[in-house]
Specification:
With 141 residues, this protein is α/β, with parallel strands linked by helices. The chain has helices spanning 15-25, 68-80, 93-102; strands at residues 7-12, 29-36, 39-45, 52-57, 84-89, 106-114, 117-123, 129-135. The chain has one domain: 2,3-Dihydroxybiphenyl 1,2-Dioxygenase, domain 1 (Roll), CATH 3.10.180. The protein is 24% helix and 40% strand. The protein is globular.
Length: 141
């Protein structure tokens, strides 16, 4: 029986730049950084989280998993900034937005009240966008 999801892949243009973004701008921890020949297995995670995010460079050559057409489609989606990679939770969206903005993180949308909480939309250095969400009813001001 499957007990948990342990890793999820985020496609990146350059692993070194992605590492700098996730580690230095977002404050994530490096869990694994191993090179095996031409292949680099690089994973990061927010502090205290078990799920590891695999920062994986898009393949440049066709393989068993990706033919040339699929690689082209993925590269095109990444170039457009059309790959939404997920939701990062926070206890205070407005404060986290200010902290990350000060670290140089680009946001497509500032904190906005939604029926499910407060959400901001940020983008990584490869064009992947993420929702930064404080769950629950927005506090009344």
């Amino acid at each position: 029986m499957i007990s948990k999801l342990s890793h999820a892949t985020i496609w990146v243009q350059n692993q070194d730049r992605a590492l700098t973004f996730y580690r230095d701008k977002l404050g994530f921890e490096v869990k694994t950084d191993v090179t095996m020949g031409d292949f680099r297995w690089l994973t990061v995670t927010p502090p205290g989280q078990d799920l590891e995010l695999v920062l994986m460079t898009l393949p440049s050559e066709p393989s068993e998993m990706f033919d040339e057409e699929t690689i082209g489609h993925l590269q095109g989606l990444m170039a457009k900034g059309a790959l939404g990679a997920g939701v990062f939770g926070t206890d205070d969206c407005k404060k986290t937005y200010e902290e990350l903005s000060a670290n140089g993180v680009k946001f497509l949308q500032p904190p906005t009240e939604r029926p499910y909480g407060i959400e901001a939309i940020m983008v990584d250095d490869s064009g992947n966008w993420f929702s930064l969400t404080q769950e629950g009813a927005p506090p009344s001001s």
